[in-house]
Amino acid sequence: MSWILIFEQLLNGVQLGLTLFLMAAGLTLVLGIMNLVNLAHGSLYMVGAYLTLAASQWTGSYVAGVLLGLAGTLVIGMLVEVVALRALYDRDHLDQVLATFGLILFFNELVAMLWGRASLYAQLPQYLRGHVELFSGSSYPVYRLSVIVVGLLVAVLLWYVVTQTRLGMLIRAGASNRTMVAALGINIRLLSTVVFGFGAVLAGLAGLMAGPIYSVQPGMGELILIQVFVVIVIGGIGSVRGALVGALIVGIVDTLGRAFLKPMLGAMLSPTAGEAAGPALASMLIYLLMAVVLALRPAGLFPARG
Amino acid sequence: MIQPVAAALLAASVAAFSLLPTPALAQQKIKIGFITTMSGPQGVIGAYMKDSVELALDHLGRKVGGLEAEVVYGDDQTKPDVGVQVAEEMLKKHNVDIVAGIIWSNVMLAVQPVVNGAGKIMVGTNAGASPLAGSQCNPLYFSTSWNNDQTPEAMGKYLQDSGVNDLYVMAPNYQAGKDMVAGLKRYYKGRIVEEVYTKLGQQDYQAEITQLRSKNPKAVFAFYPGGMGIQFLRQYDQAGLRDKLPLYTVYTVDEISIPAVKDAAVGIKEARFWSPDLKNAASEKYVSDYKKKYGKLPVFYGAQSYDGIMLIDSAVKATKGNLKDAKALARAMQKANYPSIRGPFQFNVNHHPIQNFYLLDTVKLPSGDIEMRIQKTIFEKHKDSYYQDCKM
Questions:
Q1: Predicted TM-score of the model (pTM)
Q2: Which segments within B188-298 are labelled E, that is strand?
Q3: Which of A235, B107, B154, B272 supports an S-S bond with B357, CB 3.0-4.6 Å?
C-alpha cells in the first residue's frame, strides 16, 4: 500500500465530504434555526441539477447554465418556504416529516413529467474534462479537483457570513433562541426565508456539481440525503462548522473504508473473512461512526445550542 | 293497478338481462395482466416494456390470437409484496387470462406462485431467477428472456476464448451481483486480480476506481445495472480509463444508459442475446416501427415484452381461442411457433429459450449517434445451467 495511493484516496474522501458539506450546510441551518426537519432538501439538490442542465442547453453556455440554475433553485427554495413550510414551523417533527415527504413525491413526479424518467446527459465544458497528473503515474480528474476547490470556497464564504456579518449573527442567534430573536424586533419570518433560500442554493450547487458524476434523474436527491443526515447528526445540528467537520469525517471514513477495509481485514484475520465482511462493514461504517458519536456526544461534535 | 307495475318490472328485467353479454361473446375477449415497474427511478424500464406491448398490439391489430385484447397494466414499484398485490387484483378483480411482464427476479419469485397457483399462465419477459429455470420450474411458467447466469456466462466464454488474463471484477453486493460473477467464472478460467463488491445503489466509485488502477489489471468486468451503470461508466471515463483499460460489462450499457452517458460508453463491450441491429424479419420490423412510433431505439427489456405478447398470440391461435384450458395453452407455447425477435428458437424443457448470445460493441457512427453493434456470436443455442434440475 503506497503513500501515493493513500493520499489519492484521502483526496477522494475530501471531495466526497465537500459535496456532502454543501448539502449539509443548508440542511443543518434550517433544522437548527427553524427547527424544521426538511426531507425535501434532496429535492432542491435535484432541482439544481435539472435547472442547470436545462439552462445550459438553452443558453449553450455552461457558466450561464450554472448561474441560472442557482438563481432558479433560490427562487424555488424561497417559494417552497413561503407556500408550504412556513405553516409547519410550529407543528411537531412528525407532521414536518410527512409534509416534506409529500414535497419529495411532488418534485419527483414534476421532474418526471417535465423531463421524463430516463437519466439525462450532463455535459461538461472542455476545460473541466480530462485529468491532471498529481504524482507520476496517478491521474486525477480535473472535474473532481474543481469540486474540491468550489467546496472549500463555499466553506470559507460560509465561515465569513456566519461569523463576520450581521446576517450571520442573526443566524447564530436564531439557532440558539428563536423566540428571543423575535422579541428583540427581528423579522424572524424574513430571516427564515433568507436562510432557507441560502440553503436551497447550496443544495442546488451540490446537485449541479453532482450531475456530471452521478446520474441526473428523478429521485436522485434521496440517494444522498441519508448520508447528509448522518453528517449533521455527527457535526451537531445547527452548526456550520459541525457540518464541515462532520462531512469531511464521513467522506474520508467512507472512502477509506471502501478502499482499505477489505485488504486490512484480509491481512489481520483471513482472506475469506475480508471477502465476506469487508464490503458489508464498509457500507455501514459511517452509521457505526454515527452511533459512536451519539453515544459519546449526544448533541454532536459541535452543538449549536447552548 | 297491479298489471302496469308487473309489466314495467318485466320490461325492466328484460332490459337488464339484454345488457348482459351472451356467453359466446364473452369468450371473444382475452385479458392479459402486464406487471412491470412504472414509478420511481426504474420506471423508465417499465415505460420501454409498456411501449413495446402496445406496439405488439398494434402489429396484431389490437387482437391477440384473434380475440379482442385488453391489457391491464400493473406497477410493482420494484417491491415483491406490491407485485403480489397487483397480481392478485388482476386475477380476482380483472379476471385476466394470462399474466406477463416483471423485471426483477425477487418480484418474480413472489408473483409466479400466485399466478400459477390460480391455474393461470405466467410469461416472464425479463426476470431470470435461477430457481424458476431449475428446481422450481412450473409447467405454466414461460420466459421470453433468459436465465440470469447466461449473459455473464457468454461474457466469460468470450474473455476465456480471447485469452484475457488479470481480470478485475466489480459488481454490487447483492444476490444478482454474486450470481453474475458466478456465471462469469463458470466459463472464464483465467486469473482474477480481485473481486470487488460495492454497496447496492452506490453513487460514487472513485475510491474503487483508484484501487483498481493501483492493481494494474489487464481488463475489467463489471455488472452495474440501471443508474449505478450510468454513474460507473461516467466515472470510469472521467478517470481516463476508458481508452486504456478494456471494460467488459453485462446489463450495464444499453439503449437506456447510452443517451445518458454518450461518449463514455463508446468502446465498451457487452454480451447479450439480442440487439436492435440483429438481422431477422421480426426484429427489424419491431425496431423500425418502434423508432417510428416512439422516436428512439428500443431496448432489450422491450424486445422481450414484445416477444411475450407474440408468444401468447401464437398459443391462443393454436388452441383456437380456448383460454380455459391452461395446459393446452402451455403445450402450444412450448412449440414457440412464432416469429421471435431473436429469430427461430426452441424452448428448453424448463420453458426457457435455447438461444444465441452475441458480443456487442458500443460504436460511434459517422452520424454521431452512439449505438451497439453485434460483433460476433459467442454461444450458439446456449442452454442455461439449471434445466437438468427441472422436473415437470
A1: 0.86
A2: 192-198, 219-222, 247-249, 269-272
A3: B154
- The total number of residues shown for chain B amounts to 392
B100 and B60 in one domain?
yes
- A56 phi, psi to nearest 5 deg: -75, -25
CA separation, residue A49 to residues A111, A121, B112 (Å) = 11, 11, 40
B235 in a structural domain: yes
Distance from CA of A100 to the nearest CA of B (A): 17
Per the structure, the count of domains in chain B is 2
The distance between the two most distant Cα atoms of chain A, rounded to a whole number of Å, is: 65
Note whether residue B261 is domain-resident.
yes
User: B338: which residues sit within 8 A by CB, 6+ positions away?
Assistant: B310, B311, B313, B314
B46: nearest CA in chain A? A117
> Which residues span the domain enclosing B317?
26-146+278-351
* Arithmetic mean of pLDDT, A272-283: 79
Chain segment B200-226, per-residue pLDDT in tens = 888 889 999 989 988 999 999 999 988
Question: Do B164 and B31 have their domain in common?
Answer: no
B86/B71 Cα distance (integer angstroms): 14
Q: How much is the average pLDDT of B32-38?
A: 95
Domain map (residue ranges) of chain A? 11-118+138-296
Query: Domain A11-118+138-296: which CATH class?
Result: mainly alpha
Question: B4 in a domain, yes or no?
Answer: no
Facing A119 at nearest CB: one of B214, B227, B239: B227
CA B84 from centroid of its chain's CA atoms? 18
Residues of B in contact with A210 (CB under 8 A): 203
pLDDT at residue B28 is higher than 80: no
Q: What is the mean pLDDT of chain B?
A: 90
Task: Nearest by CB to A121, from B211, B238, B262: name it.
Answer: B262
In this structure, what CATH number is given to the domain that contains residue B183? 3.40.50.2300
Q: Is the ipTM of this complex over 0.90?
A: no
**Do B238 and B380 belong to one domain?**
yes
Q: Is residue B12 part of a domain?
A: no
B-chain CB neighbours of A141 within 8 Å are: 238-240
Least confident range of A220-229, A268-277, B239-248? A268-277
* B221 and B361 in a common domain: yes
- pLDDT for the residue B3: 52
Instruction: Let me know whether B155 and B118 are in one domain.
Output: no
β-pairing, B219-222 vs B167-172, is: parallel
Half-sphere exposure of A101 (CA within 13 A, CB side): 6
Residues of B within 8 A of A214 (CB-CB) are: 203-204, 230-231, 234
**Minimal Cβ distance to B41: which of A5, A218, A258:** A218
Largest Cα–Cα distance of chain B, in whole Å?
A: 100
